[in-house]
Amino acid sequence: MKRLLQVYIVCMTLTGCAFNSIFINYPSQIAPYKSQLATSTSNASLTKLADNISGNDGLLYAQEAGRIAQIEGDFANSKAYYQQAIAAYKDFDDRAIVSVSDIGATSSSFLLNDNAIPYRGPGYERIMLHQYQALNYLLMGDVQGALVEVRRSNQLQSSEQAHYEKSQDSIKEMANGTINSEINKLNKASGTVTSSFLNAYSYYTTGLLHELLGEPNDAYIDYRKAAQITPDNHFLQQDLVRLAKQLSMPQYDEFKKRWGDAPLPKKGQGQVVFMVERGFAPEKQSFTVPFTIDGNFQTAALATYYPRTTPLNTTPITGLNNVLKAQSIANIDALAYNALKEALPGALFRQAARVVTKSELNKSVKGDNKHDNDVGSVAMQIFNVVTEQPDRRSWLTLPQQAQIAREFIKPGQYNISIAGSSATKIEVKPNRATLIWVIETGNRTRFYSIII
Amino acid sequence: MKHIKVIFVLAAVLGLSACQSKVQYGDATEVETVNENFGSTDLQAISAKMVDSMLTFPPIVVMTQKERPIMFVDKIKNKTSEHIDTESITDTISTKLLRSGKFRFIDMTKVDAVRKQLDYQNNAGMVDPSTAIRFGRQIGAQYMLYGNLSSIVKEAGSDKDVYYKMTMRLMDLETGLIEWSDEKEIRKAKSKSFLGL
Question: Where are the TPR repeats (chain A) (predicted)?
Fold first, then answer.
């Protein structure tokens, strides 16, 4: 009985932290912000979200708050939030190999659920964080700062690449029947190509910033990697051919044969570069299996994704001389499925440990008194089922898909719009590039542009 | 039993009070190794090396024997993967060079402020025209000091290696010749502790 009381005390103190994913599933915490971004014309208040940055999952809330501020065009605040997230990742990096706080978190996850472990995003989230931070610096006019963030994401990209070169096979090592079918389902949705491991959008963005800020040789390297991941994007192919031509690279003939020659800008022409982000990243769903041990009712809960049924099409951009069709460069869905697939072995291990801990707790409440026994064991079973929540945390305000489009056009003013959005005026100057960042969130589309 | 408890509580209180945070002054030139990022020690090492190298370079010694050449500092380009205040590095270097008494400087970061002031003196109608400083009387710089700061960062397992290289050059603006150049390399290695919080 005393054990039980202790568990309840732990439980009560934990509910004390208002915004906590241990009991309130994470997607439902972010849902109101997403709907606000999708519809309202007023800006979302971030103070409540930002209060959580000091908490256990501070990293995740900082990413989320930074992204919401960024979507709304508040780049200064977004930069500050992202900086907090970057610092949190750095803390993880600097942590000792055997860390007391990690052990503490893992052991409380044995008692409650995986949400007790501080959130640490998968590799692609961390890369996107730096990519978005680079855009913050760029849109606020700090070119050198933007390039620093670009180099940081380049560093992470190469370590991510090295990681997958070693461990592509490591995810196949699971033998549990139910979970296997879940993995197969995820496999089908994410495809087997590199695009589910590495993010071509990040490579393209870093390449683009390198190119626009006067480092075409670095851009060429990043574009080539992006093209290895997403080989069928027309704009990316053209960029590669054009850069190979401009830099007289040995691959120029090969690229030209494969994709056709690329037009160079005519004298006095300007350039429009579109980065189109559409929708929101997928939410993790819960997947619960009930069973009994020694006649005590228990559940196991894991997170999964339900693949979307309607894929996104190309986005027609109107208002230029011709209709420009933005093509997909990366699907965040595929990356998210893959990240979850990789996290499953660890989650399964902790799940097994949790089942053992909880059934031990069930046994421990069995005292001598018959009445005590019943109340205790019923309470224990309720506690077990209530605390058994899957880890549904992930960066939810990321886009579902990123698309790109690019064209050399005559300088002047244009009224551009994408399907269903109101028109926005942009300016194109001779020999300069106008970078237009289009973020579509449900019923609302925002345009941010800068002339570089 | 009770005594033991009291002793334990006292010990805990004493132990905790030792953990209180405190502030103290330190030596500004002390070696700083809080983390592997670019820090004050790197800044000091770079500026000391650059100034020494420049002031002892024989052609520069000859050049500064009869006159105090005028130079300006262009920005140092930050090519690392950290947000570093490179202006602070150039500030230190230019201050040291100026203090050596061998060079004179033009501060390009204050051109706008100077223009505003001269504009006020000449055009606002508030300043006695005989005391107003006229436009077009400043002296042009003969040399430009500029540089690059780049880094290579490698990380594997619990080891991290950071290498910085600072290159500086002095260009004669009339001839376009590089009169002096030097570089400073810094390497820092960091390995994670095995046990910790």
Answer: 200-233
For residue range A242-297, what is the model confidence (pLDDT) as tens digits? 998 888 888 888 888 888 888 888 888 999 999 999 888 888 888 887 777 777 77
Across the interface, do B80 and A96 touch by the CB < 8 Å criterion? no
Q: What does the alpha-carbon distance between residue B124 and residue A143 come to, in Å, rounded to a whole number? A: 36
A155 → closest Cβ in B81, B158, B193: B81
Q: Which two tokens stand for residue A264?
A: 């160079």
Beta bridge partners of B153: B162
- Cα separation, A213 vs A225, in Å, equals 19
Q: H or E stretch including B143?
A: strand B143-156
For residue A429 the two structure tokens come to 């100057």
Give the list of residues 6+ apart from residue A301 with CB closer than 8 angstroms, or none.
A113, A286, A287, A288, A289, A388, A389, A390
Contacts of B70 (CB under 8 A, 6+ apart): B103, B104, B105, B106, B139, B140, B141, B142, B143
Helices (H) and strands (E) in chain A, counts: 15, 11
Cα four-point dihedral sign A348, A350, A354, A357: positive
> Is this structure's pTM higher than 0.90?
no
| Chain A CB within 8 Å of residue B195 CB | yes
Give the amino acid at B13.
V
Coil, strand or helix at B50: helix
Domains, chain A, ordered by start: 2-451 (1.25.40.10)
Distance CA A294, CA A292 (A): 7
- List CB contacts of A23: < 8 A, sequence separation 6 or more: A14, A15, A386, A387, A389
User: What's phi and psi for B194, nearest 5 deg?
Assistant: -80, -45
Pairing of strands A270-278, A433-441: parallel
Q: Which amino acid is at A406?
A: R
Q: Indicate if the pLDDT at residue A394 is higher than 80.
A: yes
Indicate the SS3 state at residue B130. coil
DSSP A172: G
Query: What is the CB neighbour count within 10 angstroms for residue B121?
Result: 17
β-bridge pairing B159-172 and A424-428: unpaired
**Per-residue pLDDT tens for A146-177?**
999 988 988 888 888 777 766 554 333 323 33
A148 or A94, higher pLDDT? A148
With a cut of 60, say whether residue B96 has pLDDT above it.
yes
Picking from B190, B155, B162, the residue whose alpha carbon sits closest to that of residue A158 is: B155
3 state DSSP class of A302: strand
Rounded Cα distance between A246 and B26, Å, is 54
pLDDT at residue A229 tops 90: no
d(CA A252, CA A244): 5
Structure tokens at B112: 């706008």
Q: Which of these, A22, A55, A28, lies nearest to A387 by C-alpha position?
A: A22
Identity at B88, one-letter amino acid code: S
Q: Are A295 and A362 in contact (CB under 8 A)?
A: no
Structural domains in chain B, CATH included, are 38-109+142-191 (3.40.50)
To the nearest whole Å, the CA of B71 is away from the closest chain A CA by: 24
Whole-number pLDDT of residue A174: 29
Whether residue B37 lies within 8 A of chain A, CB to CB, comes out as no
CB B189 within 8 A of CB B159: yes
Q: What is the DSSP letter of A309?
A: S
**pLDDT (tens digit per residue) in A415-441:** 988 877 788 899 999 989 999 999 988
